[in-house]
């Protein structure tokens, strides 16, 4: 049954009972002068079935407005990112983070997309400066799940949520899903769709170029020092890009550095020949 009427009319006790078949009562207004239309008390809770409760929630006019209300409460100019994954998610949506953890190393290891000089460094990714965060009063915080302080501790400062690095198999697919989920939270779905469409067009535009290279494998590395390097192995973020072009990863070893997240392996020069 589709409820008809204004939110105020729908929230009246007798209207709710008529539509949902659930006994309702109205809580007194705190000032005592009137009833609070949006403070509804369910009585006789014991006979209430889960089906009836879910039906009431699904039809509630308040539920329709929850996502919009949450997005409206988040000031996009005051969002703090406590790890680099959500930094890139925010920048992909066109949002400049208010603060970012470990800015110097982001510029060293990630560099693209670049961070404006206005971004405040809030400390380490594993141990952000909680006192500084409290003073900054962010409207929302984003982090990588399992990284840094507990969500309960961060919730004392501001609302927020964590995003997964990977499911252990398809980190790029997880990143795409995370972008869409963050966009939904911030009411920026159009920005996410635009970014993903641009990415897909870019990947497709390069396929003819890589077809001509034949079946040669590719070794993806980053130098650490004169004796060691990081090697990107299977299940890393870039592996799915290689798969798009049919390019085989030359590294057949494990991902010791970040393990389950499919990150790089730290190795010495002598290991390369044995693992390729």
From TrEMBL:
It comes from Salmonella enterica subsp. arizonae. NCBIfam families: PRK10576.1. One of its GO terms (cellular component) is outer membrane-bounded periplasmic space. It comes from the Bacteria. The lineage of its organism: Bacteria, Pseudomonadati, Pseudomonadota, Gammaproteobacteria, Enterobacterales. InterPro entries: ABC_transptr_periplasmic_BD (IPR002491), Bact_iron-sidero_bind (IPR051313). Belongs to the bacterial solute-binding protein 8 family. CDD domains: FhuD. It is found in: Cell envelope. This is Ferrichrome-binding periplasmic protein. Transmembrane segments: none annotated. Residues 78-276 form the Fe/B12 periplasmic-binding domain. GO terms for biological process: iron coordination entity transport. Keywords: Ion transport, Iron, Iron transport, Signal, Transport. The keyword Transport applies.
């Amino acid at each position: 049954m589709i409820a008809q009427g204004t939110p105020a009319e729908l929230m009246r006790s007798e209207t709710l009972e008529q539509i949902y078949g659930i006994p309702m009562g109205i809580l007194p207004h705190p000032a005592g002068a009137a009833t609070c239309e949006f403070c509804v008390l369910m009585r006789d809770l014991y006979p209430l079935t889960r089906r009836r409760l879910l039906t009431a929630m699904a039809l509630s006019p308040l539920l329709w407005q929850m996502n919009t209300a949450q997005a409206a409460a988040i000031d996009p100019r005051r969002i703090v990112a406590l790890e680099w994954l959500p930094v890139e998610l925010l920048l992909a949506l066109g949002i400049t983070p208010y603060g970012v953890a470990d800015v110097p190393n982001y510029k060293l290891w990630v560099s693209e997309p670049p961070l404006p000089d206005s971004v405040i460094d809030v400390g380490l990714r594993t141990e952000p400066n909680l006192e500084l965060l409290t003073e900054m009063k962010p409207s929302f915080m984003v982090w990588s799940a399992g990284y840094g302080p507990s969500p309960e501790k961060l919730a004392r400062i501001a609302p927020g949520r964590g995003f997964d690095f990977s499911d252990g198999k398809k980190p790029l697919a997880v990143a795409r899903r995370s972008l869409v989920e963050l966009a939904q939270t911030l009411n920026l779905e159009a920005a996410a769709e635009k970014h993903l469409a641009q990415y897909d067009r870019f990947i497709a535009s390069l396929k003819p170029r890589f077809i001509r290279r034949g079946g040669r494998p590719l070794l993806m590395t980053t130098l650490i020092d004169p004796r060691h390097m990081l090697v990107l192995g299977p299940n890393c973020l870039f592996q799915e890009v290689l798969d798009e072009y049919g390019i085989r990863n030359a590294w057949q070893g494990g991902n010791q550095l970040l393990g389950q997240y499919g990150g790089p392996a730290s190795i010495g020069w002598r290991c390369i020949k044995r693992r390729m």
